[in-house]
Amino acid sequence: MSISEISIEIPPAPEFMLTALDVQKGEPVHPLDRLQIMSADEWEVFTLELVYYLDKNYDVVTRCAGAGDKGRDVIGGFSSGWDNYQCKHYGDKLSVADVVAELGKLVFYTWRGDYTLPREYRFVTPKGCSSDCIDMFANKSRIKAEIISRWDKACRDKITKTQVIDLEGELLDHLNTIDFSFVDEMSSLDLVEKHSKTPYHSSRFGSYHLKRPQLKRNAPETVGDNEKVYIEALLHAFSDADSTEYSLTNVKDSEYKEDLDRARINFFSAESLETFSRDAFPTGCYEELKEECYEGVHSVVRQKHENGYDRFLAVSKQSASLPYNSHPLFHYIQISDRKGLCHQLVNDQRFKWIKR
Length: 356
Fold this sequence. Notes:
By secondary structure, the chain is α/β, with parallel strands linked by helices. The chain folds into two domains: about 25-205, 3-Layer(aba) Sandwich (Trna Endonuclease, Chain: A, domain 1); about 225-345, no CATH class. It is about 50% helix and about 5% strand. The protein is built from 14 helices and five strands. It has helices at about 20-25, 30-35, 40-55, 95-110, 130-140, 140-155, 170-175, 190-195, 200-205, 230-240, 255-280, 285-300, 310-320, 335-345, and strands spanning about 60-65, 75-80, 80-85, 120-125, 185. A five-stranded mixed sheet has the order 1-2-3-4-5. Helix 13 (about 310-320) packs across helix 14 (about 335-345). The chain is elongated and about 95 Å long.
């Protein structure tokens, strides 16, 4: 038997310019593919992250882990009721039998009085639903019939390990009173879209989706209360340079007007970065950035300078060159943010331009 040999052509070059991040991490994994490689425990935590930010009206979000969860996984509780997010991490798509097995627990435990019926019951699964399951969710009146017909196989001896539960009498009457219109699935696309609005998303899926808003290149005309500390420190630095007492009024006619104007623009640039970080990155991310800035400029702050203005200029120059290469916000930081961080640190009273 002869073997055919086929010449292999050189693979095509990448269509886009490679960055250091591309070389370090390789081609990014699409969020829908990442859902497929999560473990069962990761999947429940992922759902917990999602639900915690899904509805701000929840008073509490809890995870019912272990064998005694009574058919509840992640619960969003509010004053008049609760929602259930049922995490099903199977190797295949969610089937009608899977749904019946879980809803059988709901029927039994609400009949027994362990908890009330939820407002919403959502199946959360990485692989989605089978076509038959999708059809059932589209025709909710079918759910009750499926539970009744599959009870003996899917529920009778599987709800608890200590009891065989026959669907008859008061339990059957209770089932017949339930309108299962509150039961549905959350699609994979819906999961990713909703999770993208949480501060956990970037740490799970990367920052592919994040777009920082355009910066305003001018500061508000009126000085806000959040500016008074760092502006007062700057005015003292100007005064220290030429022995003139500066205020917000007379500084406008001095050589330091541009310094103050730029400082305010930089401050608001850093403030916008902080807001962006708070909405899109894990808690504490921006505080870590401020700590890196403080560490990066500390030695320059401590050096001897002719006056406070010289210290301000030297620290500003140093802050503009700090790398932040390992910080999650690295790709979003601009020079104006780097300088504005220093004014935030002055606001926090971490250092002053004049040592008194």
